[in-house]
Amino acid sequence: MKFGKIFKKQMVPEWVEAYMDYNGLKRILKQIHSYNHSKLTRVASRVSQQAEALHRSFSGLSFHHRNSEHGGDIEDQVITVDTEVHQQDDSHRNLYKTKFLKKSEEGSEFEESFFKKLDENLNKVNRFYREKVEEVLEEAALLDKQMDALIALRVKVKKPDASSNTNLEKHPSDKVVVDETSDDSTIRTPGSANRDMVHGIDRTSIPEEEASHIVTDIVPVSRTSGNEEEDGSGDKQDLHEILERVKMNEALESPLSTLKGFFGDSKEPVSKKGLKKAEEQLRLVFSEFYQKLRRLKEYSFMNLLAFSKIMKKYEKIASRNASRNYMKTVDNSLIGSSDEVNRLLERVEVTFVKHFSSGNRREGMKCLRPKVKRERHRVTFFSGFFSGCSIALIVAVVFKIESRKLMEKDYGTAYMANIIPLYSLFGYIILHMLMYSANIYFWRLYRVNYTFIFGFKQGTELGYREVFLVSTGLAVLAFICFLLNLQFDMDWKMKDHNTLPEVIPLGLVTIVLFILFCPLNIIYRSSRVFFLRSLLHCICAPLYEVTLPDFFLADHLTSQVQAIRSLELFICYYGLGEYMQRQEKCQRHGVYNVFYFVVGVIPYWLRFLQCVRRLCEEKDSIHGYNALKYMLTIIAVIIRTAFELKKGRNWMIMALVSSGVAICMNTFWDIVIDWGLLRRHSKNPYLRDKLLVPHKSVYFAAMVVDVILRVAWMQLVLEFNLKSLHKVAVSTIISCLEIVRRGMWSFFRLENEHLNNVGKYRAFKSVPHPFHYYDDDETDDKDD
């Protein structure tokens, strides 16, 4: 595989714009190569006329021979790299500028533009790397304080009487010294070889039960000389003082914490349960911080490798030995010489293994470096096998219906109208999973970082093959049950046992629910738990904090109204004994009709509550408008459902008006807000500045299809006279079209979210810290 493809594959998707523009530099090298080739062609035509001129011209163009004899002199004469020092925010910033010394030669403007672009990329990479290193150093300092609080809390919970008496003298070498005079702002920690530290804190020699607070001083070099003895007088602090300066961060993430926060602050004494929660939260913080450090290290390595590769290509094309001189500058720059990330990686590993893995390095590293999920051949095999079986079963079902001429008999239409709603539930689920599988395939194809956006744990996320396998497996199971239903109903031998076929759909639902809630580690347990947790957050809205997976799932539930009503039908059909008469008379029950209204509104109501919660937390008016959109949709669904049950011209007019308003609002929100399209002054007219799909026509087609499928929602209100299709079939087809529309919406919604992350270089999720220092509030007040 060529390096350009490897380089692109290894990029952090959200940092793409911060990487070296390898392909752009290659394009300039192609221009240099084309010019040199045309130059040689012109010389060769002249040489063919005069043999003596041929010798002189050829000797003048023998760059390889000339460079091999005087390689060092030629290299010194090709380029010189100047370093300009800029003062910014009490620190030094180096900017590199290369001077090309062969401007007098013909065609030198191409090489000059090459080095100009190369300098721009080097400065860009160094600037971005510096910003990220400063971020991780600040975060490391915060983790210091978090670890101090955790150790103090452990001592208090395990030995309550020891917290007020335990103290420890801080060793002078525990100071973290920041050298302000250095361009790289390097950190020097004396005696750090045998320490368990994140940012200079010595914890390895302290028993965890007797640990006490160690304050890490971050002081400039200019302030450290001559003051160490004076500072040593205040180096003793007991754990009671630490805990007085710290409080637990009570994030409103659960229903109980939300209710407590709503009705007032209720402080509870710290217990083992609270300690365990803090440990788990800090464990996640360390894990995410470690992944950030690893990505930053990979970023440095891949860019250094890209600079080396592009300079070798330049040497080969231009026949100039400038690589050694320029790479020396690259190696001496921040990205080539900084070692802060490597040191932080080592310190985080030691700290994590000791305090979160009970000293077991193997288990600790397994948490910090989860294995990348490998594609299994058996998944592909069974996906194809189940797909073939599904197609064969579809053919068998059609053949069975046609061979018995079921639709031509009197009871045929009534029978199909009775059985289709029961099995359509599985059809909706299968179609939704197939759309999700297709979305994953295209997200990966266009490098949309969906695993980060959804917050999947590395190594547990499902690929499109796994999702396709589950959907085809469920399809095989559903078609087998449907075929058995037809066989038993049509077989004269089973006439005396006519209730048996009616129980088959109930058995299928039981199997699906058992697999979904199965606690055993089978059939992608981690993904099932993730789905159930998000579903619980949706159902309990607004008591849970709203995250992207939660409102993304709630949006998808709004497209599965018919599937949810099918579940209601199962409850009525089997709970009230309708299956014994093989007649669906649920609409004659008043309770069923009431819940028919409620079920149709529930998904939109949950989404409305999520918007209200986000409006209260984030104070962003966009969530208020979004809540208004869902309220209009709720009104439209209620009026439309009333028309469906009661009929009447007045209800029809009200349903048309309310549905039309809701469709206009929802369509505008889909295209403009969720997809970020229809920007008149963007680089791509009526689209947006950045597009991942190379063909612009795809976006215009998607907008047209979205409008058409939104309008199709009004089909049942208009009640077109479709004699060839039963009303149940029409409802099923429209519901399937809505699922297809939702799948298309999902791709562009996550594409827009990914591009927003790219614009902000947001590649890692923000995990809240378990502890909060009152000193931070005072500092913020002073800053204000």
TrEMBL record:
May transport inorganic phosphate (Pi). One of its GO terms (biological process) is phosphate ion transport. Belongs to the SYG1 (TC 2.A.94) family. InterPro entries: EXS_C, PHO1_SPX, SPX_dom. CDD domains: SPX_PHO1_like. Residues 126-153 form a coiled coil. It comes from the Eukaryota. The chain crosses the membrane at residues 379-399, 419-446, 467-488, 503-524, 590-607, 627-643, 655-678, 698-718. Residues 168-178 have a biased composition (Basic and acidic residues). Residues 161-198 are annotated as: Disordered. PROSITE patterns: EXS, SPX. Residues 587-781 form the EXS domain. It is a multi-pass membrane protein. It holds the Pfam family SPX. It is found in: Cell membrane. This is Phosphate transporter PHO1 homolog 10-like. Residues 1-328 form the SPX domain. Keywords: Cell membrane, Coiled coil, Membrane, Phosphate transport, Transmembrane, Transmembrane helix, Transport. Its main location: membrane. One of its GO terms (cellular component) is plasma membrane. It comes from Brassica campestris (Field mustard).
